[in-house]
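Work package 3, deliverable 3.1, input record:
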Amino acid sequence: MESPTHRQFEQIEQVRGLLREAGYVATRAICTAVFLAQRLGKPLLVEGPPGVGKTELAKACAAALESPLLRLQCYEGLDEAKALYEWEYAKQLLYSQILKDQLGDLLQGVSDLGEAVERLEQQPGGFFSRAFLLPRPLLQAITSEEPVVLLVDEIDRADEEFEAFLLELLSDYQVSIPELGTIAARHVPLVVLTSNATREVSDALRRRCLHLFIDFPAPQEEAEVVKLRVPDLPERLVHKLVAMVHRLRGWELEKSPTLSETLDWARALVALGAESLDADLVRDTMSVILKTRRDLERGRKEVQNLLKV
Amino acid sequence: MPPVLVSAVAGHVNGVWTAAAPRPHPQVTLMHTHIRKFVRRLRARGIDISTGEHLDALAALQHVPWLDRAAFREALRTTLVKRADLTPVFDEEFARYFAPPPLPKEDKNRRGPGRGGQMSRAERNQSGATGEEGGRGEPGERPPKEQSATSGEDRGKPDEAGTDQKREGDQSRPQAASAGQGEGTQGLGRQEEGSAGRTPHFIAPAPRETQRAVRELLRSSPRRMSPAELRELRRHVGLMARRLATRAARRRRSAHRGSVEMKTTVRRSLQFGGVPFLLSHRRHKIRDPELLVLCDVSGSVVRMAELTLELLRGLAATARKLRVFGYTNRAREVTSALLSGEADLPRAAEDAGLDLHAFSDFGGACYRLLQDEPHLVGRRTSVIVIGDGRNNHSEAMQWAFEDLVRGAHRVVWLVPEAKERWNTADSQLQCYEPMCHLMAECDTVEKLLKALRRAW
């Protein structure tokens, strides 16, 4: 199905290299899962705590494969019209108004409604053609001329029905539009679904997907991520910063700092032109990483403790 | 496995093992057999694996080099195990089934390092299969036929020679020992992640037997169980809890649409010249349950209380509020410690400042709780009490309980005692019964599930 000009992953090691070029530090498990997802043409369900880079992974995959990323953000109440396609009613109405005269010509000499309908039906195209179809991310992914990466973000926020609807699409990579017929994918897209486990994703969906769990990275990996994404931060500070974040994760905080917040903190330090980390600086910039009042108070109080890493 | 069968398959082994690259048309190879066995083991441990997933695993193995152990494991994990919390089980079984090569030092010299060694091993494998002396077989050690059989089996796996150590152990170990180092045992000790250092003691029974065993576990009283049985039971209850949670979420989302909402409908109709072409519906408000759990943490009841909490933990995701209090003679909140799964119930209660050795006194605990938190129970709160109502001859103080649960949506009392023993000796259940919508016997998990189903 795929033409040779499109980029493909050939080896697991290559995946790691390409993702790294795209600014993503991937573990062996991540590389294998992504590689297999593409090779087997199966969707990849990525789970893990918020802020470990689940969405980032999809973006990095798109960059690595040099293909466009289509993103569908899920939320409660998301339905087919918003995810798949919609008819452009306004455009249809507008056109029928503009073409009133032509329609009049066409329908000249028609005696009853049945005949009028028959004559309209004979017209090719008509109002339910692709011209009036508003494709949403899922349809775009399927009709795309080139292979794409489709990110279905936070699937756990969508309704159960939507999940069921997705099953059909993800197993056959085709959709049926009553007026147009079945549209099959030209290229099997690389589908990445993410979930924060606000609700259990159904077993049926799990079965159809490959599964990947991303946890908070080990200190060394996290330091590597920071170095890659915030290259301006002196290396000495990187390790100190990461050690502090890890210590913070060990505390029982209301909201543990995530990887993306580590990066924010690193960027903040760069912006402030920090040369070394002292108690005052940490106290001042701590709000980047601790987001509730109680956590912040505790962090400020125990800043010396934190620096003692 | 009977030796004859293995040597018959061993011919395939060579072809497959040397070829780490994808094969277009897979035949039933030794790898298929092993994956099937491995899947069976995972199923026996309570991981649901569909046939589709099984096939996915086989498909995935066509794309990864088998000699790369990490990739091999990840390929199996990503296709077979779809829940993060089951990963430890997978790792354990993987380490057990696909044990690392048992002969590290000396054998390396003999085989040459790294992959080259693996390849030549495959070559030797063939000669082994045809009945000649295989590479590491010392002549005269055992009858050639049997040897070729076991080594065929052993070498059949990707890069882990001594795979089925537990079964084959008795046969392969003498061989290793005769190599002078006793490395067979070393190999066992080297089992990686999960079961590191621990000698495996558990061989999974066939799934059907397991199901029967589980059913039996569900039917028998946890008070008389061994720690191992209890652990197994808790795991199964945990699985059930997750299923419950999915179902609860599903129910929440059904009955999606309510009555027509005028405001949006009119606004939308403007698109069509005032014709209400698209209706907008009001959504049913979802009433998230609020749960308040009071559980006795004294020794007599605590096991059942823990199992019940395990079930409720699964529901915590869908409940708007879940608060758990442990009590003996007073009540203390243990919600966060329990939900994070860090501590077991008695420990959490003790950390919260509860005297575990005090005589349990439900009435007194209610009274004090009422004083501390008078507005604990609201209109939507469902109260679950887990306890035997034995107050050690202190006053029942049912009025305190009545005050505490006044206006609650539902009050359910789960009694981890057989019904015959209710209201005997110091049990004062009858005093509390009028305040409960349901008082149910749950001395086994099966009855507990039934009671919960009846309650909601």
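The mean pLDDT of chain A is 86.
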